[in-house]
Amino acid sequence: MSLVEDFNSYRTKMNDRIMSSDNLIIKRLFNLDTNCYSEGHLNEATKEMLGLACSMVLRCDDCVKYHLGKCKELGVTEPQIQEVFSIATLIGGSIVIPHLRRAVEYWDELSK
Fold first, then answer.
1. Where is the Carboxymuconolactone decarboxylase-like domain (predicted)?
2. For residue 97, which of 60, 49, 56 has the smallest C-alpha distance?
3. Would you kindly state where each structural domain of the chain is located, as residue ranges?
4. Which of 1.10.3720.10, 1.20.1290.10, 1.10.3430.10, 3.40.50.2000 is the CATH number of 43-111?
5. Exposure class string for 27-62: b at 16+ Cβ within 10 A, else e
6. What is the pLDDT of residue 33?
7. What is the pLDDT of residues 33-48, one digit of tens each?
8. What pLDDT is attached to residue 71?
């Protein structure tokens, strides 16, 4: 399996497991997350790029992968992604560089 398939498979499996617990608070948080990224005053792609930048600064590799996948689905281009990478690395500082490496690797995999 590829890096992308592994991530998506694990994410789906565990989300299904989490949702099966029927925890109302968790369900509400998941719903809030879904609704936050839907079309509004900002388009979905812009919101995903914001999520990507924030996730890189917060150093959450799973979140970075998720937002990269959504960006790819929404037609975000390589130059746009590179600008997001630049902003996130500038804001987060050198500690973001390892996450940048993994983000570039994942984007490359998505782009195959």
1. 28-105
2. 56
3. 1-36, 43-111
4. 1.20.1290.10
5. eeeeeeeeeeeeeeeeebbebbbebbbbbbbeeeee
6. 94
7. 999 999 999 999 999 9
8. 98
